[in-house]
């Protein structure tokens, strides 16, 4: 049986979009008859070179792990094996399929990361990975444009496969309506995700006694201190995947003022749960809005919280009824659900390996 080396630093967990993509990729590859070896941080920490690095540095740093994963794959790979990698996490290997979930250069440019040797290394790694790859699978058309622009990449070996949502996990739940606008946000409370805009909106709601609440789900308690002081804010830290549908269903609308995304799954999850989205012109929000898909609108005055609140109210009004929410769910289940995604990936894999 031929082998597939699937490089994912965090393995196949539900930690984020990269890991969930790798989970479904591994399923398809197994169905095609390959034995899948997931090369994650544990693999590298137990690799003899990883142990050597840990001996001198006390651990295997992420950027060192990226280089070691390439050496590991090159050393282990036999004839007939295939290699699937993500972004900058395995720059030395020649990947049969490289998934681009957005670019590090695009990310750093969007949020104004200061140029240092350390911040530039992932960009260098990603450029190596792109130029070593036989085929590139991008999660969005913007990821393709960024790769060509930032890494001077001229080949046309790109295929675009948008991320997915598990429609069996995220669906509308019937609930009673009151006169308080429930605004949800799901993601890390950090600069890239627009934490300053969340705080501006929360302060405006409190100062104006507006009938609105901001409900936040985040995977850690970093940067939540100022938001916790706001009366209108309710924060959930560390919700598990099986708890997220109930979280989304608390909301009438999702606010997503992120500064940079690849093709974020939280937008698809909210929409599948029947919750419309108002966000910045980035990632999935950008592509869905430009395609005139259901339930998505763009923040028109991001620096004016009063206008943002009005727009959130207007967006919520469009999908107040359970029927409207169910229509939203059905649309995203059909076009971005698991079955549709697996079919697209299967087509890609067949095309690449034939």
From TrEMBL:
InterPro entries: Glyco_trans_4-like_N (IPR028098). It comes from the Bacteria. Keywords: Membrane, Transferase, Transmembrane, Transmembrane helix. The chain crosses the membrane at residues 52-74. GO terms for molecular function: glycosyltransferase activity. The keyword Signal does not apply. SUPFAM superfamilies: UDP-Glycosyltransferase/glycogen phosphorylase (SSF53756). Residues 16-167 form the Glycosyltransferase subfamily 4-like N-terminal domain. PANTHER family: GLYCOSYLTRANSFERASE WBBK-RELATED. This is Glycosyltransferase. It comes from Bacteroides oleiciplenus.
